[in-house]
Amino acid sequence: xxxxxxxxxxxxxxxxxxxxxxxxxxxxxxxxxxxxxxxxxxxxxxxxxxxxxxxxxxxxxxxxxxxxxxxxxxxxxxxxxxxxxxxxxxxxxxxxxxxxxxxxxxxxxxxxxxxxxxxxxxxxxxxxxxxxxxxxxxxxxxxxxxxxxxxxxxxxxxxxxxxxxxxxxxxxxxxxxxxxxxxxxxxxxxxxxxxxxxxxxxxxxxxxxxxxxxxxxxxxxxxxxxxxxxxxxxxxxxxxxxxxxxxxxxxxxxxxxxxxxxxxx
Length: 265
Fold this sequence. Notes:
Elements: H1 2-9, H2 13-20, H3 24-28, H4 34-50, H5 56-66, H6 73-82, E1 112-121, E2 127-135, E3 140-147, H7 152-166, E4 171-174, H8 183-192, E5 195-198, H9 208-220, H10 230-246, H11 258-264
Parallel strand pairs: 1-4, 4-5
Antiparallel strand pairs: 1-2, 2-3
Helix pairs in contact: 1-2
């Protein structure tokens, strides 16, 4: 518009810019690197066509670190969005839930135990499962049972072994896995008058104590070993669990080992 006004009315550039309320620098501005935009778009289209699971991060790192282009990530992402190359993420199925329950904090040992399963594999590829038991009060690992299969009857036997030396809990917090909703486990809990506190489906945060324990098990034990047999895995689990309970500081209980808090209680 400023160029047209200058030519039509034979006025100066300053006057044309003043009448149209724009800066003189805008009048003289010339787009820079416009050809690079086409090059970026071409690269992005080729990368996403060849590598269908690559998102923006991998595409940008490839152009920057592999091909050596110095384009700014904001510029590349703007073109990435304009081309509508964003990966479509399948939304999670919404589960209808009741009113969320707050995570209770036990005030004494054996008030509430938490139990959960984990999976790994042996060196020969067979699936390995672990059954973890935790006292929520002092975050003490009460047991780690390791085997190729852990049905509900095996779960009951493991809990009975822990109860023999630790005493009986008032309640056990658990998820809705098939081993836990089996009638055998429900009948066993009723016979011992132990409350089974099932968390709501899709809410692992309601079993946060054992989930945090599982993370430690994964990082400090499972990921550090290649298991040749179930017996070896069980032996290493027993050794690690003793170290966890007696020597490893736990930040959730003030930076002391779980057994130290148990002795204080």
